[in-house]
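Quick illustration, no need to memorize.
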Amino acid sequence: MKIERLIGIVMLLLQRELVSANEMALMFEVSKRTIYRDMETLSMAKIPIYTMPGVNGGIGIMPTYKVDKRLLTTDDLTSIVTSLSGFEQLFSSQEIKKTLLKMKNMLKSDQENTDNLISLDFSNVTGKKEINEHVEELHLAIKKHQFVRISYNDRDGNETNRKVEPYHLLFRNRYWYLQGYSIEREDFRTFKLSRILHLDVLPETFIPREFVVKPFNPPKQYPVFEMLEVDLLLDRTGREQIIERANLIEIKPEDQTYFLAKVILPNHEAGYRFLLNLGKHATIKSQNEFYDGFVAYLEDIQMKYQ
């Protein structure tokens, strides 16, 4: 839209002294003639645009122009670029790429200040390529108010076919979710993208319903597991995993090699599988119901290989 482009041009020229018409045309994906018309529009709006001829010339805003340039400082833009760079790994749409390019170009004049002190890396998100394709398809469907049809595996392994009005995408704890209105259920539902077996974006459009982004809560019928305190003996590798992933009560050194940790785990297969992920790096020290359940779970696994 023109108004968005004009705002973007003003922001760009407030950050950089001179920008060529060619560069702006590439950044905003319009012709040079359109850029020159935009300059005329900005001049009519009392924004003092000037041009400098020559190889090193370009378009600029008079330095005396009184605008609070702190609206978006170099630090602000750097923070936005950092966030978008991380988000791009989860959702590599053309819109994100274009926005990143524009932001980075705005920072060129302050190159010495653009070294990021923080970076985000989501490259290890499981199923990234396949999920990314679904995310991008759903994002476009949401924008265009198009129905989607999905083949979906629920948490009990039952396959269902749903026609859905998509409204919102949510990324939580390494997983993508779709919030939408299920025509079959006549209610809003949350779908985990990794459970979608097949996705079709339909040409049919819908009139959006009133929708408020819903906090992520497990379904009411989802079983609530007994949570127990479990004492663990950990080596250094196990300590790292527990600190990052577990509901930790306390952890303290046992000696120069091992650590004692008290954690909260569900007395259920989910808790047992979490502990199995730690392999030989963790040992249960407390013999309670969790210990008995975990041992029985191991025995069931061993039986499958006899």
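Residues 73-113 form one domain.
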